[in-house]
Write a structure and sequence with these properties.
The complex is a heterodimer of chains A (about 250) and B (about 425).
Chain A (H helix, E strand, L loop, with lengths): L1 H31 L6 E11 L4 E11 L6 E8 L7 E5 L2 E6 L4 E4 L16 H5 L3 H4 L1 E11 L2 E10 L9 E9 L2 E10 L9 E11 L2 E11 L2 E15 L15
Antiparallel strand pairs in A: 1-2, 1-13, 2-3, 3-4, 4-5, 5-6, 7-8, 8-9, 9-10, 10-11, 11-12, 12-13
Chain B lengths: L1 H11 L1 H38 L5 E4 L13 E2 L1 H11 L3 E15 L2 E10 L1 H7 L8 E4 L2 H7 L7 E5 H7 L6 E6 L8 E11 L4 H6 E5 H8 L4 E2 L1 E6 L6 H11 L4 E4 H4 L1 H39 L1 H9 L4 H37 L1 E2 H5 L4 E2 L2 E2 L3 E2 L5 H27 L3 H6 L2
Parallel strand pairs in B: 4-9, 6-8
Antiparallel strand pairs in B: 1-11, 1-12, 2-10, 3-4, 3-7, 3-11, 5-8, 6-9, 7-8, 13-16, 14-15
The chains are: A alpha+beta (about 250), B alpha+beta (about 425).
């Protein structure tokens, strides 16, 4: 009887830990999708501050995750010099459109490393959207209560043969009213590094289209403390029925 | 009689003979030395170049040279390798697969050419995979042997690349390539097994090697390779004939000697050799003028002597012969001494080698190839005998006119002069 009880406890623990792992994974997945929902249409400004230049863009971003294929379309609304530039991503295929010479470029591997529109995000970051959900194992590093929110710090370690470039990712999120909000994601080069290489921060939670969402996203590189890329969402509309034709190269013009 | 005369004449004015002979001895021995060192340097350049990811002969798909795409690969490399060995036992074939790739670590990414190699065979023939080139970690072959099954496949990268990516031994990096199916980009993770340093900027910054099986899987080209590089134990000398012979055997393949496969190396070597020949020509012309000068002077100074000979009944041709013989004896004597001195110097550099770093302070790069720190003098017998002959004939040629003129002066006019 004692043995059986022990077995029961072990089984319970196992399933509980498995459960919590799934739980952590789904939290991260939900947090990553908070600004996308099923579909989203948003207008945001992107401020890039680098030692070499400062840039401000206004972007229209459409996303559609209703089918297996994840689709993202980013169209530049301003400044005038850049108006009409489009980045289209359907799964892992990324293409760029330049309106002045009406050229579409499909991204090749050699372009991955370069930065996306001069920001602190690389083209590769666009492609690796789903990395956190697929290539890592999760471990809860810390949980605490603050301002009536359940905070969790989750440590992500890449799976043994995962083709990812980070050795460790620390994901800080909180639960409020049954929804998951991302707050800070820090990327470490190696698993045992003290200093993160870059930090992505979500802030300024506001009500948009009936949902509370963080409206400011900021990427900072640890090596260059004065530089940042900040995305500020001005308008978001969730779950509208976006036509599939919007996510094709024909829609570039 | 005339031989005796010629020798006596030479010995009569020892200082003049000695000076003339010194010019020849010095010039000739120096030329032998330079010829040996420059040929040795070229040989070293070729040997190193061939070992830096090249080969004595490159075998590839006929269209690969114009369009190195994944659709122009060689099928069944193992079978082809066996066929190649069957034609010539001295060949060591190595298969290589090359592709454009992006190598990433953290937020750094570098676009480069990734080379899939057979670690075991490559270590024997290539200077990149060689243990001597590895400054940190181990070679791919050693890594593969020591690896437990859980580990990722190894990758060996250049020193500057490692610095740019900020990676060290044991770190994980990812490779992104466009596979043959042409679809989405394919990625795979590798563990940094070793960091090499060749001294060549190109290689140290933009070169990485992984096991060929992993790259084949990633590129979706099972059992296909970009090229088979052939190394022959016969050395780099008769590579062109070898390539020709192989082309006759395998007409469907593009078979290139290194001269065609790496034209920049070839032209660097030929240009350097051409410069050397030009220099030799100039030096020999100067030597010839020097000899001409002394012979002219000596015949002028000895007009009375010649006229006396003719007055005593010597024939014009006898006088000419004596002068000519003097030159022949002088040059033969000087050439022998020059040859001995030159060969002695050559022997020194052929056994001890010339330490480039010691002489010039830095290592030297030529035609994309780093010259080895030490290289050894080599001499080809036919080249050597050709230059001996050249100097000898040159001496006789420049002496010919003064010699003929010496015999054809009227003795009366000659004796009245001076």
């Amino acid at each position: 009887m004692k043995k059986l009880f022990f077995l029961f406890i072990v089984l319970l623990c196992n399933s509980a830990s498995a459960n919590s792992k799934d739980q952590l994974g789904s939290w991260i997945d939900n947090a990553e999708r908070i600004l996308r929902s099923k579909t989203s249409a948003s207008v945001l400004s992107m401020a890039i501050n680098k030692a070499e230049y400062q840039r401000d863009f206004t972007l229209l971003v459409l996303t559609d995750d209703r089918t297996e294929q994840q689709k993202v379309m980013v169209r530049m609304l301003g400044p005038a010099l850049w108006r009409g530039n489009v980045t289209l991503k359907v799964d892992d295929r990324i293409s760029f459109f330049e309106p002045r010479n009406k050229r579409t470029t499909v991204m090749s591997s050699s372009m991955l490393a370069s930065s996306w529109m001069g920001s602190h995000f690389s083209n590769d970051d666009l492609m690796r959207e789903t990395d956190l959900a697929t290539h890592y194992t999760y471990k809860s590093a810390k949980s605490w209560q603050q301002d009536n929110r359940d905070y969790h710090l989750i440590e992500l370690t890449p799976l043994p043969s995962a083709p990812v470039v980070w050795g460790k990712v620390m994901y800080r999120l909180y639960l409020e009213e049954g929804r998951v909000f991302p707050e800070q994601v820090t990327y470490y080069r190696r698993n045992n590094d003290e200093q993160p290489e870059r930090t992505l921060t979500y802030s300024d939670v506001k009500l948009m289209d009936g949902f509370k969402v963080p409206t400011v996203m900021e990427m900072r590189i640890s090596d260059k403390p004065d530089e940042y890329t900040r995305m500020h969402y001005q308008k978001i509309k969730f779950n509208s029925d976006l036509a599939a034709s919007k996510f094709t190269e024909q829609a570039f013009l | 009689m005339i031989h005796k005369l010629a020798l006596r004449n030479l010995l009569r004015n020892k200082r003049r003979s000695l000076l003339t002979s010194l010019i020849i001895v010095f010039a000739f021995s120096m030329m032998i030395l330079f010829m040996g060192l420059s040929d040795g340097g070229h040989k070293a350049m070729i040997d190193i170049g061939v070992r830096m990811g090249l080969g004595h002969v490159i075998v590839q798909h006929p269209e690969y040279r114009d369009d190195p795409a994944l659709s122009h690969l060689l099928d069944n490399p193992e079978q082809l390798k066996q066929l190649l060995i069957d034609t010539d036992q001295r060949l060591t074939p190595v298969a290589r697969l090359r592709s454009d790739a992006l190598i990433q670590a953290g937020r750094h990414g570098v676009a480069l050419t990734i080379s899939g190699v057979e670690p075991e065979i490559e270590a024997q023939v290539s200077a990149i995979a060689d243990k001597k080139a590895i400054v940190q970690g181990q070679t791919l072959a050693a890594f593969a042997n020591s690896a437990d099954l859980q580990r990722l496949s190894g990758i060996v990268i250049g020193e500057t690349l490692a610095k740019n990516l900020e990676v060290r031994i044991g770190d994980t990096i990812t490779l992104t390539v466009k596979p043959a199916s042409g679809g989405d980009l394919a990625r795979s993770a590798f563990e940094v097994a070793g960091i090499f340093k060749t001294g060549l900027h190109e290689l140290d910054t933009f070169w990485a090697e992984v096991p060929i099986d992993d790259l084949q899987a990633l590129l979706e080209v099972p059992n296909q390779v970009s090229q088979i590089a052939l190394y022959t134990s016969a050395g780099s000398d008769n590579v062109a004939q070898l390539a020709k012979a192989l082309t006759a055997q395998f007409p469907a393949l593009d078979i290139l000697p290194w001269q065609t496969a790496a034209p920049e190396l070839y032209s660097a070597v030929t240009l350097d050799a051409a410069g050397m020949y030009l220099l030799m020509l100039i030096v020999y012309v100067v030597v010839a003028v020097g000899i001409l000068n002394t012979v002219l002077m000596s015949t002028f100074r000895r007009q009375r002597e010649f006229s006396m000979m003719i007055a005593l009944g010597a024939r014009a041709s006898t006088v000419s012969k004596v002068v000519l013989l003097e030159a022949i004896y002088l040059s033969a004597f000087s050439l022998t001494i020059g040859l001995v001195l030159g060969l002695w110097g050559h022997h020194h550099f052929a056994t001890q080698g010339l330490d480039f770093k010691e002489v010039f302070g830095t290592a030297m790069e030529a035609g994309g190839v780093l010259l080895p720190e030490k290289f050894y003098s080599t001499l080809e017998a036919n080249k050597l005998s050709l230059s001996v002959l050249f100097v000898f004939v040159l001496t006789i040629l420049v002496t010919l006119i003064p010699a003929i003129r010496a015999g054809h002066r009227s003795p009366v006019a000659a004796s009245q002069e001076s």
